[in-house]
Amino acid sequence: EKGGYDSYMLKEIYEQPTALTNTLIGRLHDDTGEVNLDIGLDPASFKRISIIACGTAYYAGMVGEYLIEQLARIPVDIDVASEYRYRDPLVSEQTLAIVVSQSGETIDTLEALREAKKGGARTLGIINAKGSSITREVDDTLYIHAGPEIGVASTKAYTSMVSAMLLLALWLGRARGTLGGEQARELLHAARELPRLVEAALAPERVARIQEIAEKYAHASDYLFLGRGVNSPTAYEGALKLKEISYIHAEAYPAGEMKHGPIALIDEDLPVVVVATESRLLEKTISNVQEVRARKGKVIALLSDGDTENAQHADDVIYVPRAHEMVSPVVNAVAMQLLAYFTATALGKDVDKPRNLAKSVTVE
Ligand code: M6R
Predict the structure, then answer these.
(1) CB under 6 Å to ligand 1: residues?
(2) Fewer CB within 10 Å: N-end or C-end of the chain?
(3) Whose CA is nearest to atom 12 of ligand 1?
(4) Where, per UniProt, does this protein localize (predicted)?
C-alpha cells in the first residue's frame, strides 16, 4: 500500500503532481482568466477575512493571507486556532472566517470555527477529508482533493492547500475587481504549471542533491530557516517538517527579522536554510545571506534554476524550477519536505511514526 516507497511520507511527496492536478482541475479557465470554485459564497458579502488553522495548515493560511491581500485587497488576519478560540475575537456579519484543515477533525480548529459562527461570521473550510466534522459545520467547503494523507508529517496536503488559497485569492480578486484580466491570465497560467513544476522538482538528480546536503548536515543540533514575503511561510514549514521527523531543533524567521535577535545564534555549526528564489525581494534576501556568512553560518540556499550569480554566497545550493513568485511557495515546499525527509532517514528515524505526534489532533 506504500506503492513501493519506504514510507507513506515519501509516497505522498511523490504524489504531489497528481494531488495538485486534482486541486486545480476544472477550476481554472485560462482563456477568460476566470476561476470557478463552485461555492455559494458571495464574494461581496464581507469586509475582512480571518484565517484560522493549526500547524502546517496555519502556514498554508499564511501564504493565503499574503495572496488574498495582494490580489483581492481585502484585510486578512490569521490566528492559530487554539489562540483564536479563547481570545474573544472581534467577529461580525462582515467577517469571512476561513478554516484550513487537512483532516477536518482538529478540535481546536473546529472550536474556533464555532466561535466565529457565534459572532455571525460567514464560514469557508479549505479541507481535504470529505464529509469531516468541519465540512458539516461551515457554510461552504473548498475541497483541496489531495487524496488520503497518511504520513503524520503533512506534505501533499500542504501544497494543495496553498494552491487552493491561490485559487481563492484569484477568484476573490476577479470578483471584487482588484485583479485585472491580464494579471489573472498570467497567474492562472502559472497555477496551471504547478503540477509540471513539482514533477520537475522531484527529478532524481535534484532529489539526490538534497539527500547529499541533508546527510552533510544531519548531525547539526540546530537549524535556522529564513524566507521573505510569500515564502516566509515556506521557512516556517521547512522548520516544522524538520522538527517533526528528525527531532532537530529548528527555528524559522522572516529573513529581515534575523538581525533583531536570532543572528546571535549564528556560528560555524549552524546550518541556515534560506529561501532565495526569484522574487522582488531577492536582493534583500541575499544581503541577509551575506550577514549569515559573515558570522560563519553555513548557508544552504534555495535558488531558482540558472541563478549562478547568487550561488557564490552559499555553502550549498538547492536549485528549484523557476516559478512565478506567487506560486513559488508550492514548488519550494517540496525541497523543504525532501530535506527533512532525508535528514530524518540519515538519522535512522521512522518518518511515518514520529514520536509524540498523531495524524489528527482531536484532543485539546
Ligand atoms: O488536519 P489538520 O490540517 O487540521 O492538522 C493540523 C496540524 O495538526 C497538522 O498540520 C500538523 O502540524 C502536521 N503534523 C504537520 O506536518
Answers:
(1) 54-57, 101-103, 106, 109, 152-154, 244, 357, 360-361
(2) N
(3) 55
(4) Cytoplasm
